[in-house]
Amino acid sequence: MYIQVAIDIPLFTTFTYAVPPAWQAAVQPGQLVQVPFRNRSKTGLVMSIQETHDPALKPASIKNLIDIVDLEPLLSTTGLEFLNFVADYYFAPIGEVVRLAVPSAVRVEGMKHYRLRALPEEESGPMQELPALLGEAVEALRGQGQVAIRTIKEAVRGLTYVQLSELETLGLVDVFYEEEKAKVRARTEKYYKIARPLAIGERLGATQEAIFQLLKEHKTVTLTTLRASMKSPHASLRGMEERGLITSWSEEVYRDPFADAPATAPKLFEPTPAQAQALEKIAEARRSNRFEGFVLHGVTGSGKTEVYVRAIRETLEAGRTALVLLPEIALTPQFVGVFRGHFGERIAVLHSGLSQAEKFDQWRRIKRNEVEIVIGARSAIFAPLDRLGIIVVDEEHDASFKQEEGPRYHARDMALVRGNLERAQVVLGSATPSLESFHKSQLPAGEPGRLTYLPMPDRVAARPLPRVSIVDMRGGYRAPNAPKLPPSLISEQLTAALGKTFERNQQAIIFLNRRGFSPCVLCESCGHVFQCPNCDVSLTYHRRQEALRCHHCDYALRMPEYCPECAHTGLGRKGTGTEKLEGYLQELFGQTRIARLDRDTSSGKNLQKIIAQFREHEIDLLVGTQMVTKGHDFPGVTTVGVVGAEMSLNFPDFRAAERTFQLLTQVAGRAGRGELPGVVFIQTLMPDHYSLMAAQRHDYAMFAAHELRMRKELHYPPFTYMIALKFEAVSEGATIQAARDYAAAAQRQIRHNPKFAEGITMLGPAMAPMARINNRARWQLTLKSASRPLLRQFVRLFLSDAGHFSAGNSAHKNVRIVVDVDPLNML
Fold first, then answer.
1. pTM of the model
2. Dihedral sign, CA of 445, 390, 670, 660?
3. In whole numbers, what is the pLDDT of the chain averaged over residues?
4. CA torsion sign, 621 to 625 to 627 to 631?
5. CA 510, CA 592: separation in Å to the nearest integer?
6. Is 473 exposed, middle or buried (0-12, 13-18, 19+ CB in 10 A)?
7. Strand 112-116 vs strand 173-177: parallel, antiparallel, or unpaired?
8. Alpha helices of 65-156 — where are they, by DSSP H?
9. What SS3 class is residue 401?
10. Bridge partners of 777?
């Protein structure tokens, strides 16, 4: 028997290992195993089992499996099929894809060891009933501490791995790995109970008496509870155990990242006609037990969350599970609170903001089928949920669903793939659907990839959408009696609206998509601009830190006192970031409680703290970057202002207009979500741009028609498919050479195959718009085609020609080469 094992290394293949006869009954696809690799043991995932090996392999070169980490497979057959699809579609090493699905704390390295567990005497019965070989194994372990699997198998002849695993199942042994010191382990809680009553005349100390009374009252008490009830109980507990008065044992407990988060009391609403129609369409697919993808296009405040909750409840009632993907960690507590109110504790949470230990516990709860709903960011698409019945992707248009490191998967697209494999329903919800999703929802019935369109054009309770005004800033504005800080920053209209908002004890949000104090510092004498030495960008001035900082590589230096070129002391701080805007507004509205929400203020637990304070109306005005736009429900917000709305339009990216429209529509949607109507002011130097005019009218159809017409003429997605190759290296010469070599391999395929010459468009190779980041030169090569299969066939052929899939491409070993399928970031 042979197994194909995926190992976490950057190679595009699995590795073949032989399975010793004693273990053949135990090995299964989806298990974690220990295998020898380059003179050490590594953890890998069994992808498949075969009776024969590849004839190209010499039998002498095939090594034996060392160990099975867990008898129970971590992933199902469908889960393995999903991982294989991700690796194939994104041209990614299978081991790197496995890393996404299996947390690092689960992937143990080193040799397995056993240690006999100390058990209370009344629980030692199972040892007396053990089969002979297992009894010998227990005796071999007794008194020897930690024993390696090889040692115990040598000591007890005929002992198989399956039998050793039976000791684990019986709870008689603990398992360790020799290199596991840095790994996360399961958390345990110590429990105590009374073992015998007090003898006549037997006396206890004061602390012991308190412990004894607590145990009599509650039967079993945890050490944590005892510590909270009395000071230093350890000595008293130890003495009582030695006298046989009490007994103790340990049980595993989970670390809950949202243990203190209150559940939101569920509100019962009668569904609107649009909500009812959407739910019926989803239910129809569920009753037919078929996969179907839906685009839930609901304006901000239309009740998309209510549709999610009802659809998930019906799915759970049908005996299946649910997965909810969110674009932003900041949204997680809000959703967890709502879902806990509806579904209790049957929820697990997965995202990058959790500690390794918390991720470890949450993942194991999912794997053990102890939860029915998983909520998380993009990586949660790999959660090991069984019986998956529905996947919800909230704010599906958000670019954060695209992974920009490692395998470049898009969680929204992979949700549709996994839904198809699981025969589940997939709901893509947004007030501003991506043009790719919207286009698929408008395809004729029966067209491949078609999604079902579910419109929800009105807010719940007939609440009006906010009134949006575009403020032309081209003439320069200064509010009356405003501080003499930055001119043209806050218009007279927005200033007046904010003043009235605070007088009425209401809340406001100001959005500026640029953090820091000033994005550019220059010498007013010679014009020298302070730039990052590692990246092709200017340094941003942060006033609170009194430092210049790069937002790409995090390079920083103290704010200079003079110009390094001409020694002039007049250094100008140009432009405005959220830090400057916050200070300006604090001077303009002196007594107003103002907070800032951006990457500089949201580290650690500050993010949830600021959001909670704003929701509890402890903050009147929230100034921030994109973090304030994403799906938050703040009923007290009636006024929203956008500063510098045109900034995102100037990026060299064909999606710039779409992103601008989405940002403006989303941030405008934060206003008027409660009983009071909202107003929005969009300040811009480009008031006539179609994306701003569409956002002003809340007219998605107008924007989509204009933008899709342009995309079709220019042969951009969703009418074509794209794959970008990105080249990065410290040496610019090596970067250019790699880009040219890959381009030459592509040209060879085009010359030799007429269908490629006709159907493939190649752009580049060319220097990336941001030519250097983190001291690495950047070039890119972009490929387009109206046919996805043709483009993929072409890319696979020319990558093979360029030696991309071979182990250690020696021609470009110092160049990082990334294949980005369906790229979002064109910079």
1. 0.85
2. negative
3. 87
4. positive
5. 14
6. buried
7. antiparallel
8. 77-89, 94-101, 125-128, 132-141, 149-155
9. helix
10. 729, 772
